[in-house]
Design goal:
about 80 residues, alpha+beta, Translation Initiation Factor IF3, four-stranded mixed β-sheet, 2 helices, about 30% helix, globular
Length: about 80
């Protein structure tokens, strides 16, 4: 299990989800990914994408203008 981070700040919908998907494709099951973004739509879009694709949202933090969504990569 490896921890990774994706900087999706200043990207607007749908780019945070697209970049998350691209990053997850390069990871293995059990890896974690922290997606740092500023688009408030990501609060709903990334967790919905995770549910559809079998990944687990470990937590969501909001700090100032940034949103950090932590994901555990599920099986393909």
């Amino acid at each position: 299990m490896t921890q990774h981070q994706l900087d999706a700040r200043r990207m607007l919908c749908p780019l945070p989800v697209i970049r998350t998907q691209q990053k997850v494709e390069a990871l293995t099951t059990g890896d974690t990914l922290a997606v740092v973004c500023t688009d408030p739509g990501a609060l709903h879009d990334i967790p919905a994408w995770c549910r559809v694709n079998g990944h687990e949202v470990l937590g969501i933090q909001e700090q100032d203008d940034e949103i950090i969504i932590s994901i555990r990569v599920g099986e393909e």
